[in-house]
Amino acid sequence: MALREILILPDKRLRLVCEPVKTIxxxxxxxxxxxxxTMYEAPGIGLAAIQVGVPRRVVTMDLAKKEDEKEPRVFxxxxxxxxxxxxxxxxxxxxxxxxxxxxxxxxxxxxxxxLDLEGREQELEASGLLATCLQHEIDxxxxxxxxxxxxxxxxxxxxxxxxxxxxxxxxx
Length: 172
What we know:
This protein is of the alpha+beta class.
């Protein structure tokens, strides 16, 4: 297992649409292990493979509270089958957009189809934080960031801030 670097806005790779995983081999299992290590270290509750520079449809997630036992979950090739019309608003953050938080409205419930780490097809109906997190991470796999769900003005402001910081880091 190894820590991987998390891509930060405005890295253009965050806008890539990820490729489906065809075979769950040693490479994918190593990626998943590295993603969990990176996510826990950050710390975060969800991570998409593209956030560590790998354009594959893989998501790791753990919604357990710090004091509770870990509940690691893996979603390979996740796909939203159904979204409720009812909406829920959560304050969102993202490891690729550090220290920026904003309320985002999403479907309150979703049904998701995915493969587990053994390659078995699974279906899950989710609500609450799990539904929000799944939608956030699946968006990543499609090149969509949570700031795409906020007002244009706020999105432009945060994008400009991170672009300036990236330029300073590159020249500094």
